[in-house]
Amino acid sequence: MPATGYLDTRSRHPVALIAAISINLAIVGGVLTYKTVITPRGPDGIPTIKLNPPPPIIVKPLEQPKTRQTKPADPQPRPVPVPTPPDISKTIIPTETTPWPENPPLPPMPTGGQEATKPLPPVEFTAKIDPRFASQLQPVYPPALERQEIEGKCTVRVQVGIDGRIIAVELVKADNPAFFTATREQALRRWRFKPATRDGQPIVSWVEKTIVFKMPGN
């Protein structure tokens, strides 16, 4: 079995090995740095040799390697500070500001205000002779004027009711009073009209009509 040295009799832990090597190097360095001082000769004529011991060797203990510690993560994210809005009530507003340009004056409003939408005028139709009674429009010729062969015209203004019958007859112009009398009697008894209407509803109205008295054969 081979002989073992000093290092083999100790624990071979890396830290112990490094410490032993450091001590040996310190001892060797101390010997090398040991100074020899020769004093003058003594009474016997023999110089005295004095060795000055080297300064003490201070061996610092080896620092254990530091274990890197993992910083624990924050359980919750840190709140982000929210800037406080400035207090508007304490803001100083300058009293003098640049004036705005003046707007042009508005056109004058009508005195009566805005005109309302005018309603549409009503739809009206005048009274007309009923075609079924057109043959009964001509009155009987007055006998006295017929014997004298007197011809003429008579214009009357008649009031037509909502049923188409004549309510009243007014004289406008007649060449002979007999013509008006005959026309009036015929209108009240025989004339029929289609009444006038306003928006589709029958109304009472006035109509002017001219009757011509002419001898047969002329």
SSE-based structural type: alpha+beta
Distance between the termini: 183 Å
In round numbers, the mean pLDDT is 76
Strand content: 15-25%
Order of helices and strands: HHEEEEHEEHEEEE
- Gyration radius (Cα, Å) is 74 Å
Task: Give the number of DSSP strands.
Answer: 10
Major β-sheet annotation: 3 strands, antiparallel
Outline, from the CA principal axes? Answer: rod-shaped
What's the number of helices?
A: 4
| Overall helicity | 10-25%
Order the strands across the largest sheet as they lie in space.
Answer: 3-8-9
Low-confidence stretches: 1-11
Q: What would your notes on this structure say?
A:
Helix content is 19%, strand content 24%. It contains 4 helices and 10 strands; from the N terminus they run H-H-E-E-E-E-H-E-E-H-E-E-E-E. The protein is rod-shaped, with a radius of gyration of 74 Å. The N terminus is likely disordered.
Summarize it.
The protein has 218 residues and is an alpha+beta fold. The chain contains 4 helices and 10 strands.
Observed structural traits:
3-stranded antiparallel β-sheet; 10 strands; disordered N terminus; rod-shaped; alpha+beta; 218 residues
Topology record:
Elements: H1 6-9, H2 14-32, E1 35-41, E2 47-52, E3 124-125, E4 128-129, H3 143-147, E5 152-160, E6 166-174, H4 177-190, E7 193-194, E8 196-198, E9 201-203, E10 205-213
